Amino acid sequence: GQQVMQIPQYQHVQEGEDFTTYCNSSTTLSNIQWYKQRPGGHPVFLIQLVKSGEVKKQKRLTFQFGEAKKNSSLHITATQTTDVGTYFCAGLSGTYKYIFGTGTRLKVLA
Amino acid sequence: GAGVSQSPSNKVTEKGKDVELRCDPISGHTALYWYRQSLGQGLEFLIYFQGNSAPDKSGLPSDRFSAERTGGSVSTLTIQRTQQEDSAVYLCASGAWYNQPQHFGDGTRLSIL
């Protein structure tokens, strides 16, 4: 069945360092969504990518969708303590079902 | 409403009992999802509703799990004869359509003793 792998599983960075999480699907995706979940909270929508090769930016966050629409990445520039949480990608592949990645847990050390 | 509302927020019950979890989606949202999240894990898809119909029930773990949605709004997830492995946070999300952003509720934390 369809799988969405996400790496790394954990990442500890010093405040001010950059951070990147990668998402890889076994099948071509119609779109991909990214969510952030703070400890004890629920996932919060960040962005959706639809087009092949699409790049979107939100302040310090840069999101990319691969040319083959099977992979995506989230890059955070100059992390802050407010960036702490788990980042999930969720891929939609031809059905109504979103397959969530395993998540990357980010810790930022002040 | 302002957001997705789920109730109860916490539920502790004994093994073998039935439980019913409720989700009030954002008004006007056609798409509704149920997910399950175990401690420190990702989200496991359970079921999707488009309006009142459920074209995709493929994620329901067993026939002890069922869900319905009435009036294109409120949804309930029912687990019969609960088992300890059912312990998890059950999250509901709604969206304007299936390919639109999902808005999550705070979840129901279910603990089976």
Descriptive notes:
The complex is a heterodimer of chains A (110) and B (113). Chain A is mainly β and 110 residues long. Helix content of chain A is 0%, strand content 55%. In chain A, the strands form 2 sheets. In chain A, strands 2, 4, 5, 9, 10 and 11 form a 6-stranded mixed β-sheet that branches. In chain A, strands 1-3-8-7-6 form a 5-stranded antiparallel β-sheet, with no helix packed on it. In chain A, a hairpin with a 6-residue loop joins β4 and β5. Chain B has 113 residues and is mainly beta. In chain B, strands 2, 4, 5, 6, 9, 10 and 11 form a 7-stranded mixed β-sheet that branches. Chain B has a 4-stranded antiparallel β-sheet with strand order 1-3-8-7, with no helix packed on it. The model of chain B has no long low-confidence stretch (mean pLDDT 94). Classes of the chains: A mainly beta (110), B mainly beta (113).
Largest interface: A-B, 22 and 26 residues
Report the total helices of chain B: 0
Assembly form of the protein: heterodimer
Number of strands of chain B: 11
Measured between the Cα atoms of the first and last residue of chain A, the distance is 41 Å
Structural class of chain A comes to mainly beta
Name the helix and strand elements of chain B from N-terminus to C-terminus, one letter apiece.
Answer: EEEEEEEEEEE
The whole-angstrom Rg of chain A is 13 Å
In short:
The complex is a heterodimer of chains A (110) and B (113). Chain A has 110 residues and is mainly beta.
Helices and strands in order:
The complex is a heterodimer of chains A (110) and B (113).
Chain A: E1 4-7, E2 10-14, E3 19-25, E4 31-37, E5 44-49, E6 55-58, E7 61-65, E8 71-76, E9 85-92, E10 98-100, E11 104-109
Parallel strand pairs in A: 2-11
Antiparallel strand pairs in A: 1-3, 3-8, 4-5, 4-9, 6-7, 7-8, 9-10, 9-11
Chain B: E1 5-7, E2 10-13, E3 19-24, E4 31-37, E5 43-50, E6 53-56, E7 65-69, E8 75-79, E9 88-95, E10 103-104, E11 108-112
Parallel strand pairs in B: 2-11
Antiparallel strand pairs in B: 1-3, 3-8, 4-5, 4-9, 5-6, 7-8, 9-10, 9-11
